[in-house]
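FAQ
Q: What does a multi-component entry look like?
A: The components come first, one per line:
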Amino acid sequence: MIVGLLLAAGGFGAGVFGSLLGLGGGILIVPLLTVGFGVPFREAVGVSLVCVIVTSSAAAGVYLERHTANLRLGMLLEVFTASGALLGGLVAFLLPERVLAGLFAALLAYTAFSMLRRSRAPVAPPSPPAAADGPGAAGDAGRDPGVSSGSLADDVAGPGYRPRRLGAGAGGSLGAGVLSALLGVGGGIVKVPLMHLVMGVPLKVATATSNLMIGVTAAASAVVYLLRGGIDPYVVGPTAVGVFAGALVGSRLATRIDVRILRLLFVGVLALTAAQMALRALG
Amino acid sequence: MSSVEARIARILAVGTRVAVALLATGSVLLVAGGTSPLAPDWPPLDLASLPADLVALRPTAFLWLGLIATIATPLLRVVASTWGFGRAGERRLAALGLAVLVVIALAVVAGSLAG
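Then the predicted structure of the entire assembly, as tokens:
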């Protein structure tokens, strides 16, 4: 009983913090389960993938309703993230858990560094949902179905922008898929900068489209984990329910909390967790 | 919002709620039955016995079904997008959706063979 409640509470915390800080839950759930509950690393990744699908599916519907996500671009890049996830899902069972823990420690350290850099930048006031409907932010709104103007880049363009360097986007998406499957994360840490900085997609659209893609990406590797007996349904239940509830609460708190202070605190937590994961990797 | 996007948003919202409700039911039944979620031996997924286990209110059945519903929700989104773009005559986008479904099918085959 107590363990079930603790798992749900841990998932809730991961959901709240993930939602407040714009992180997928995976980067928090894997350390929570391995360090906090002693779950083997690969099983924690399997559970995390399921939790990541839950949060992605819940948020993606909202992003689509607000026209923030570019469904067309997501469908293009998903071919590559899902392929990478399939590959990563198979490789994950070949690698020693210590190697995976070492990779995760590196990912945590990189995330902490990125958040620290962001915390020094001025924070823009949160824009109301309606702002996402404006020019340059919309997904499919205003398009004429069936009208294709030639190139693939035109097919996946949104109002005010036309994604460039599709080849680099495809390659980066493949890598994001592998990362997601190996470490049980959404891969937004790769996909958002890739779409925004490399492909020229507006940040808000890149974030929403990345979230939309996470579900399918994680599903590709979750299928492999599930069929290989790598997902513990007992741990998934309370953790995923907690993450779902936490993400709902976090999205409501986001406009009322000074995320800068939270981010700084969180950098410390991530750095400590990275050290623990590194120690685990070193045996 | 286009009809494709509206349909997909509805699929994602309903699918997530159904999946979380099943997982919550399974978790409550599990804990009420005195089994720790950290118990090392969980019963394997057996699709054939799932309906009977659901009727018998076995927690594992609800947990497995919730897990399957979770994974199926984004895949249903791809099916709906592919269908919607296909009907709208956007063949390239429909082909991309089909390619994703092929990758998922390969994941099922690879997972089954390796498992």
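Q: Is there any commentary attached?
A: Sometimes. For this entry: The radius of gyration of chain A is 18 Å.
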